[in-house]
Amino acid sequence: MQSRFHALRLYSRVNTQLKFKFDFPTQPRTKYSILPNLIPNQQFHSTQNTKSEFNSREGLERDEFIGSVADPGEREVFRRDPNDETALEIQNLLKIRRDSSVSGIERALHLCKLSLTDDLVLNVLKRHRSDWKPAYVFFNWASRCGIESGYSPGCGVHNEILDILGRMRRFHEMTQLFDEMSKRKGLVNERTFGVLLNRYAAAHKIEEAVNIFYKRRELGFQLDLIAFQTLLLSLCRYKHVEMAEFLLHSKKNEFPADIRSMNIILNGWCVLGSLREAKRFWNDIIRSKCKPDKFTYGIFINSLTKAGKLSTAVKLFQAMWEKGCKPDVAICNCIIDALCFKKRIPEALEVFREMNERDCHPDVATYNSLIKHLCKIQRFKKVYKLLDEMEQMGCLPNARTYVYLLKSTKTPEEVPWILERMERNGCRMNSDSYNLILKLFMDWDCEEKLKSTLDEMERNGMGPDQRTYTIIIHGLYDKGRIEDALSYFKQMTSMGMVPEPRTMLLVNAMNIKLKEEREAVPEGKGLGNNDDSTRPSSRRGRKKSAL
User: Fold this and answer.
1) HEC per residue, 452-496
2) Can you give the pTM of this predicted structure?
């Protein structure tokens, strides 16, 4: 495999260095959802990972990620999972051949003489979750090539490519693929319907989502209550709560309402931020034959805290204890987080202490709420004590824990220590962690560490995604690199990513600004990088007026 991809690896390394050519002036800095899974066996894509991706090894080169963000003499280096190596090489090939024809890409893949498996194909697809074109080309090639070698993609692979196409709003391709899956036995499962419902609801295609639900019967699946609740959950997740409630009432003869279905709707109003509707539906539940359970109380308490009604939420929380309806850890976490947000940290710590006394053991979310707010007020001694306590109790910190720690850093030298502790506890980096580190190094003007973060992020199939490009575009603009920022915007849109509205406003302002500067330059003179008019100092002063 190494010889097979040797030329591609060399090309990719050079191409990456040219692609991320930052030249920032470095200046010295002074050191200064409560609702759990209501639907059993329905799993949707999550960005949270719990297993470690790196293993320590001595004698590696300095381009490993944690080592590269540390200063010389302080580097700890780690080994990547060898099973990812082939997928990484395929990713590099697809990247290099991005502008080639489909037939050219397929010829290059044929020359690699790959041994296809579901694990390998899934690994490649997951590295292109924000870039549907190479993912779709590779999937189609693997499906056709597999006929010759005896490989046939399973339902997991088909569901992954469906999810990618739906995320990037490629509904024509998604529908075409689903129709092909429907004709073959064993490719459509509950996860398939979950993906389709999720993606149609996210695109506000409510009618299509409902049609997919009723298509279950055609494909031999039952139209049962669990499936109906999955539909309600998908609609509520993407703010179509009114439609979900209408379906709940209009289909009550087919699917009698139970407390689980009503909890989904109540949580939908809570997530939507409508306390008025949440109160109305809470009263409907109280008047109905359905008896509120812990989840019902937890959802409504969460709604009250989000609306700033903390006193009412605390009273309801205390009433649960008095009525013998013991709050679970999720409800306690909600109260603790709300108390911390209102800077009532001593009261939050008291609830935390009472949890242990009442045999309600705290989980990682409990500790995260306390750590998040303690970091904000810079009580790091207490933070480290909680971290040690988590490790001793076997409640290991997750990616979000380390995000809060990273957000509290003031200098680049603090980052390696956090990453090393993260690695030691077996916590895997996710796209949010990478993007946060990327933003920190962008703000600190750490060119080399910024490059190493981007490289490692891409190698691990975590991006670049929409958030990555947003950080780079806005960061380059802040530093006066308008042409570079526009170049990354063009690259972002070419991958089918939809920019945030604020990024579109910024890009429009940059295009106007660039046009004005070019018109102001006398004929025969260019806007070179050494031109004073393009220096960061001249742009910073006019940023507000440009917008």
Assistant:
1) HHHHHHHHCCCCCCHHHHHHHHHHHHHCCCHHHHHHHHHHHHHCC
2) 0.65
